Amino acid sequence: MNLHEYQGKEILASFGVQIQRGLVAQTPEEAVTAAKQLSKETGTSWFVIKAQIHAGGRGKGGGVKLAKNLEEVSTIASQIIGMDLITPQTPPEGKPVHQVLVAEDVYYPGASEPDEYYMSVLLNRASGRTMIMYSTEGGVDIETVAEETPHLIFTEEIDPATGLLPFQARRVAFNLGLSGNAFKEMTRFVTSLYKAYVNSDSSLFEINPVLKTSDDKILAVDAKVSIDENALFRHKDYKAMRDLREENPVEVEARAVGLNYVDLDGNVGCMVNGAGLAMATMDLIKQAGGDPANFLDVGGTADAARVETAFRLILKDPNVKAILVNIFGGIVRCDRVAQGIVDAYKNMGDAIQVPIIVRLQGTNADIAKELIDNSGLEVHSAVEFQEAADKVQAVLA
Ligand code: GDP
Ligand code: MN
Fold it and tell me: Which one of 247, 268, 303 terminates a domain?
């Protein structure tokens, strides 16, 4: 589950990570109230107004702006709230901004230039360990740094048995070229950041930039936080942070009815039971020259009602030109699934305008095939996996 910057920062702060402070606002009036409140709490008179959407690169798209007084807070907030913000990470038409974070300006002019670093905490899938990835080159695209100056990206792997050790936190501060108070502040920052990552059951923290202010404070200025959904039952308070407006509407609907659906770019809709078979089915479609439109695991009970719900979800995607149903009848009998497909098809009337290819294997597969073949509907049955994929390609051609 992805969070907004302001929510991610709330979680960081709850574990003692120093952040650029701010308050969220839904309207320009709320933004001004927030700015006044921030002035009281931090003494700041300059503010940054930051669009809250689930995408990075907001600064480049005009979604992060400096306000030097309350009037500017109001005008900038009214410009940003309601805009469709286009960044390198949004769809081409942009994403609507519903709220802004009014934050204290932490780039205040001082004796020395503020320094921006990059830091993320994530799982290294090769070693199976949590890793802190960091760089002196913050504030810019880390992908560009990785490509052009990979030696400026450092990593620190953490043994789960010991957690982050003090020498590792010091090594991070050292590699970032820090000394004196900033060095101490950075070791504290890294230590609390790691603690926050582990205890919030996150799967990704990306803080870009981490800022060294001109008075040697270390702050998280941005926060991209993803929480592991499988751990949400341990964090009842995080559940409310889900912003469904930021998620794919079909995925949201599927989740509500207990179906595991992921939207993809292709044109072959897939309905499969079991996540492993679903993955294999997507591979096969690719190998046959097609492109899956979705991942959909209908689970163990593929009865008529569930099959119909699944068909309806798949057909919400206008790109779908054919549907491949690939069900293995281990616990569920294939003839029941086949009957479910036929019933759902008849029930849906004109809603189904694309050919359906069905492969049912397992208990009573032969009866199931007969049922499909004799249904008189535009449903093609297949016995072999490859045959199914080839039939999909044939109907698309
Ligand atoms: P992103 O563009 O979506 O990654 O959003 P960020 O939160 O990283 O902000 C983008 C940029 O805005 C940062 O890299 C900074 O250069 C700038 N910025 C953020 N906070 C402040 C601030 O307090 N003062 C000033 N002057 N600039 C800021
Ligand atoms: Mn950023």
Answer: 247
